[in-house]
Write a sequence for this structure.
């Protein structure tokens, strides 16, 4: 019998669950348990006024109640679709304009200073105006998400296009590539790592955009849940909204990491620890 | 004589740099016959690379002209394949898709491009590495991909700009033999730039020696060594006398440079 024999018989999940993975899961989980326990104790000993604070157990009960009535799912679905549509729009338009600005000195001269200025401006501040224009439905929130998410994508696309190695463009030229071919087959793929970074930043800003947009005027969504719960002094429900947002943030970051690893398979990765 | 694969007539190339005119190449006349392995050597900065770039259509002639198969060169063309000095592969494309790049640009059908790229990969000895990405390959292997990519568009003329300069001595030797085997199989005319004199004599039918800037053709030497050339040929007296002659030619100006 060889040494490697037992691993062949082990089921797939057992092979996946290596010692490193167990550690990688256990450590953050420990933090979570400690924080939840501290929160519970704090809420039951010091901050006992339920008008201002609630322990995690009551938050969980509120979440269960909201889930049973179907309210929570509805809020999540509304906020999620606002985020997705807004971010998708930002990806399409941000990438298109980014390539245009990146390849043309002239377009850059006309626009770059304003793009930089708008990137630095907290555009959630225009949310009330947009709600005035587009109403309290889903469209106004998509617009707010778009506005907040498009600039990091735009800025990163411009940087990525600029960073294209001149030699790689020259290779394409020597193979008689047209201008359009150079853009689609050299410039864009070489800018992909930058664009993905921009998208990740854009999603982060977009989540803020969703919540702020809903706070200013909405009919549903997690921001709306937080607003109405706050007005009703229903602190457990308010925390449900906040915790759901935090979980969604972690989930989206993880998903973005997976996509990045899949798309950037061709990159040399250095394992540093 | 119009049967030349490449004819360079009275070529001058000038660059403008910070308002100054810089003469890179002066009065170049060269003829390269079809199927020939033509080497250009010269000190660094003598305009070798510029000459190759003009041939490829990447740089413009200030005076004179360059003909490939009787046609004046004004832009890159698929009758010429360029092998770059540096590792100029697309890092996001695997070997197969790097080699098929030129065919893809030409709009060759996917199946046909794939088949021809596959054949070129086998020709350069990289079968089995089709799905590897450039960062997974050694320097020598990357340069083979570079060569296969240029050959895949079936150019009449292969332009090579110090393709082995970045390789270690052993890999370089291997690649020299491989290159002779591959170009003999493909029947391509080759114009090859190097500053390694032994490499020039080993590979070339003719070796043109350029002067320092502005580059002019100092002399064209015929290397009448038999083909195929075995590895041991580098130790023969004939080989060494060719090497010594080129060293002397380059040395005449190196001495008072």
């Amino acid at each position: 019998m060889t040494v490697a024999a037992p691993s062949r018989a082990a089921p797939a999940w057992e092979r996946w669950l290596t010692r490193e993975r167990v550690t990688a899961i256990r450590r953050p989980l420990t933090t979570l348990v400690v924080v939840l326990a501290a929160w519970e104790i704090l809420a039951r000993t010091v901050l006992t006024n339920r008008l201002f604070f609630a322990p995690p157990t009551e938050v969980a009960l509120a979440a269960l109640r909201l889930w049973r009535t179907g309210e929570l799912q509805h809020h999540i679905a509304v906020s999620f679709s606002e985020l997705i549509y807004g971010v998708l729009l930002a990806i399409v338009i941000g990438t298109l304009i980014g390539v245009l600005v990146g390849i043309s000195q002239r377009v850059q001269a006309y626009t770059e200073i304003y793009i930089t200025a708008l990137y630095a401006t907290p555009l959630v501040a225009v949310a009330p105006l947009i709600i005035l224009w587009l109403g309290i439905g889903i469209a106004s929130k998509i617009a707010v998400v778009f506005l907040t998410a498009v600039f990091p994508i735009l800025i990163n696309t411009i940087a990525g296009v600029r960073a294209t190695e001149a030699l790689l463009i020259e290779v394409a030229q020597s193979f008689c590539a047209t201008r359009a071919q150079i853009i689609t087959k050299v410039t864009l793929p070489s800018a992909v790592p930058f664009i993905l970074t921009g998208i990740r930043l854009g999603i982060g800003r977009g989540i803020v955009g969703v919540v702020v947009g809903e706070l200013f005027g909405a009919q549903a969504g997690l921001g709306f849940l937080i607003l109405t719960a706050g007005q009703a002094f229903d602190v457990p429900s308010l925390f449900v909204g906040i915790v759901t947002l935090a979980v969604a943030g972690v989930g989206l970051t993880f998903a973005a990491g997976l996509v990045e690893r899949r798309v950037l398979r061709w990159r040399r990765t250095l394992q540093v620890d | 004589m119009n049967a030349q694969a490449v004819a360079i007539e009275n070529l001058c190339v000038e660059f403008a740099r910070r308002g100054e005119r810089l003469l890179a190449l002066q009065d170049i006349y060269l003829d390269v016959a079809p199927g020939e392995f033509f080497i250009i050597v010269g000190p660094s900065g003598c305009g070798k690379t510029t000459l190759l770039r003009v041939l490829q259509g990447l740089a413009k002639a200030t005076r004179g002209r360059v003909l490939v198969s009787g046609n004046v060169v004004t832009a890159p063309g698929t009758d010429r394949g360029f092998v770059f000095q540096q590792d100029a592969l697309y890092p996001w494309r695997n070997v197969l898709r790097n080699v098929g790049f030129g065919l893809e640009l030409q709009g060759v059908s996917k199946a046909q491009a794939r088949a021809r790229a596959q054949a070129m990969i086998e020709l350069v000895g990289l079968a089995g590495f089709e799905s590897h990405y450039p960062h997974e390959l050694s320097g020598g292997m990357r340069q083979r991909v570079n060569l296969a990519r240029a050959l895949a568009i079936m150019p009449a003329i292969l332009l090579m700009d110090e393709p082995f300069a970045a390789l270690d001595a052993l890999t370089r030797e291997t690649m020299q033999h491989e290159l002779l085997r591959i170009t003999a199989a493909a029947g391509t005319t080759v114009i090859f730039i190097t500053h390694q004199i032994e490499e020039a004599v080993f590979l070339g039918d003719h070796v043109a020696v350029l002067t320092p800037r502005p580059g002019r053709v100092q002399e064209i030497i015929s290397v009448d060594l038999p083909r195929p050339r075995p590895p041991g040929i580098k130790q023969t007296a004939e080989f060494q006398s060719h090497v010594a002659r080129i060293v002397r030619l380059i040395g005449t100006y190196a001495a008072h440079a």
